[in-house]
């Protein structure tokens, strides 16, 4: 079909073919998007305003909420706009921007979750050294490392993916520009470089995964040795939300990318993509605020303050 020089837009997968179902999808995405904005916005306000929450753990949570807000804004608004306008098109530049920001924000989030596991490990297994190991300087360096490596990574993937000539049309079988689907459009063989890069990324991701698992093995061994029931409960409530968020992030991602090709169908791929790209940013604030008393108190204060302003 067309070659790369004449390719100036891609066509995304629509969720439905009738106008009514498209409106339904629009309403559903709008609901999810608004709840993500509200949840993450509340956490950002609570952590920024309550000085009880000015500790490394909550600063990292602040970072996580910003990343969640960003990552859900990469895919959902465009898909909503398209279903409202009854079109499937995304410009070449728009597609490249989606790939870039998607990689940037999701890999930064994954690196940040690894840093947060380290933070919980130090807090629970080496509490006496927490102050020295997790000082302001060290925390800022770790946060910068997470954002920086996400950025670098995104530059590499985007440059690599879009330097490949495309010769299989311009229909992306996903509701946003997802790299594996874009690679399917490339001329045979030239995509091997990007596949190589993806394999390297998977190894890196696996390294982080092992690090997180080892941290949690140490954390659980330490927590189970705490003699008092109350102490155990407190220690668990400090790390279970993080563990839940990590598990959700990794399990949905793994399932989407490592499922056997035999059970692949466009509908299943679509549902899985929603699961790993849309659901975690929307439910992370919920998971974090559900079990954490300090955060709940801070959120209550924010809500009371807002109510006072309206009276
Ligand atoms: C991210 O975390 C670092 C380290 O705790 C903190 O200094 C910084 O203010 C946070 N940045 C954002 C945007 O949340």
From TrEMBL:
- Transmembrane parts of this sequence: 23-46, 58-77, 89-112, 133-156, 195-223, 235-258, 270-290
Keyword terms of this UniProt record:
Cell membrane, G-protein coupled receptor, Membrane, Olfaction, Receptor, Sensory transduction, Transducer, Transmembrane, Transmembrane helix
User: What main location does UniProt list?
Assistant: membrane
Where does the UniProt annotation locate this protein?
A: Cell membrane
Chain ranges of the G-protein coupled receptors family 1 profile domain: 39-288
InterPro entries for this protein:
GPCR_Rhodpsn (IPR000276), GPCR_Rhodpsn_7TM (IPR017452), Olfact_rcpt (IPR000725), Olfactory_GPCR (IPR050516)
Q: How does it sit in the membrane?
A: Multi-pass membrane protein
Q: Which PANTHER family does UniProt cross-reference here?
A: OLFACTORY RECEPTOR (PTHR26452)
So what family is this one in? Belongs to the G-protein coupled receptor 1 family.
- This chain belongs to the protein called Olfactory receptor
Which organism encodes this protein? Apteryx mantelli
Taxonomy, top ranks, is:
Eukaryota, Metazoa, Chordata, Craniata, Vertebrata
